[in-house]
Design a protein that fits this description.
36% strand, 132 residues, binds cobalt (II) ion
Length: 132
């Protein structure tokens, strides 16, 4: 059912510093920062030959990643995103397997349907499904 690794998301305390790390020290292609107030984050994407790294900095007062950063002040890996071909089918399959979703599928940061799976049901990893 699951397909490619779409991205790994890393929460960072300083997006400009993170961009400099990947762009200058590691020689990667990194997008310009993109504020997404409706998602409570500013993001930049590191393009890799086989996947992407999504750098996320909290934006606003009720950012969904603010708590993560409070627990991990240096930043850290927040979630992995796996591609699924059919969101309804994927959601049904994991639900039937006893895996909880965090809410209903919604339109994510890339204008595609996404849903998050409960990390306690996924060996401690927050997993995002994105319909591709
Ligand atoms: Co993501």
């Amino acid at each position: 059912m699951i397909g490619h690794l779409n991205h790994i998301a890393i929460v960072v305390p300083d997006l400009d510093a993170a961009i400099t790390l990947y762009r200058t020290a590691m020689g990667a292609s990194v997008s310009e920062p993109l504020p997404m107030p409706e998602h409570g984050v500013t993001v930049a994407f590191v393009s890799l030959p086989n996947t992407k790294i999504e750098l996320m900095e909290p934006l606003g007062n009720d950012s969904p990643v603010a708590g993560y950063l409070a627990r991990n002040p240096a930043g850290g890996i927040h979630h992995i995103c796996l591609e699924v071909p059919d969101m309804d089918q994927a959601t049904e399959a994991v639900t039937a397997a006893g895996i909880r979703t965090l809410g209903e599928p919604r339109t994510g940061a890339h204008e595609k349907p996404v849903v998050f799976l409960h990390p306690k049901d996924c060996v401690g990893t927050l997993i995002e499904f994105e319909e591709i």
